[in-house]
Design a protein that fits this description.
This protein is α/β, with parallel strands linked by helices. It folds into two domains: about 190 residues, Rossmann fold (3-Layer(aba) Sandwich); about 70 residues, Alpha-Beta Complex (Hypothetical Protein Ta0175, Chain: A, domain 2), CATH 3.90.1070. It contains nine helices and 15 strands. A hairpin with a 2-residue loop joins strand 7 and strand 8. Helix 1 runs parallel beside helix 9.
């Protein structure tokens, strides 16, 4: 257990810290490619990776700071990820899932947090069913592969990006904004999430419980902006939704690295930041 006032490091997972085969973006000749470590198995196949160097740095980081994964993944999807840690079987003391809808404590969902955030969302946003109905007409289109309700909290569609009709995403975003929802495009997934369902809200609860003295953060998508803005220092990779928009803010560093190399650089920056706080 980390001491109170220890730094807290919070990071998005997919396309920030861990990378699928499609997102690795390896640019060196094959013989010079970095060695990779699988951190997720899905349907019997290695699914997500970090570099071996990033894995070693992450294990060091988890010894020296509170490390908190923060993801839009559901709890079930998150549990497929086996992050490197300081010892075998290590599980982060806290993890944020479902974009803040679930707070895991030692790997177990916290019922008090679930009840609190559910009440907050209900008071500020239109019901989930209304947004699901809005997306229903597009579910049978050839460019929509599937539509899913996640964790009973938000909805996403897997789309063929090159075939999405012009203006569709902007129209959806505008309609959702009027009802207290936010829209984000991450890879091939279009998310519609209640505006009050945020990673930063869950982060604030973790900070309260841990008494962390400072916060470092990283993320690549529009749904990560509140997380980055809540941190004392933050980083975004050179790819992703935020990079595509050229987004940055005071205290947020835009990295040049892309793909799995960006994941390694982010962990390196985290560790340097934690050690700088301690010095």
């Amino acid at each position: 257990m980390r001491a109170r006032l220890s730094p807290l490091v919070v990071s998005d997972l997919d396309r920030t810290l861990v990378y699928s085969n499609q997102a690795l973006a390896l640019t060196a000749p094959d013989r010079h490619a970095p060695r990779l470590l699988s951190v997720e198995v899905y349907e019997g196949r290695a699914h997500s990776f970090v570099t071996e160097r990033a894995a070693a740095l992450l294990a060091e980081l988890a010894r020296e700071a509170w490390f908190v994964p923060a993801t839009t993944r559901t709890v079930e999807q998150y549990e497929r990820v086996n992050l490197p840690g300081p010892e075998a079987g290590w599980v982060p003391a806290y993890a944020i899932c479902a974009n803040g809808g679930q707070l895991l404590v030692d790997g177990v969902p916290d019922g008090d947090w679930r009840a609190e955030i559910t009440a907050r969302v209900a008071a500020a946003s239109a019901p989930l069913a209304e947004v699901v109905d809005r997306l229903a007409p597009g579910a049978d289109q050839e460019w929509v592969h599937r539509r899913r309700v996640a964790d009973g909290s938000f909805v996403y569609c897997v789309v063929e990006r090159s075939q999405v009709p012009a203006g569709w995403l902007d129209d959806l975003a505008g309609w959702c904004a009027e009802r207290g929802w936010a829209v984000s495009l991450q890879g091939r997934k279009v998310y519609a999430v209640p505006a009050g369902l945020t990673k930063s809200a869950a982060l604030a609860e973790v900070v309260r419980r841990t008494g962390a003295g400072s916060v470092l953060a990283a993320g690549d998508s529009l749904l990560d902006t509140d997380l980055l803005l809540a941190a004392d220092a933050a980083w975004r990779p050179g790819h992703g939704e935020l990079a595509d928009r050229g987004w940055t803010a005071p205290g947020v560093t835009a990295l040049a690295e892309t793909g799995v190399a960006a994941g390694e650089e982010i962990v390196r920056r985290f560790l340097a930041g934690v050690r700088g706080v301690r010095s």
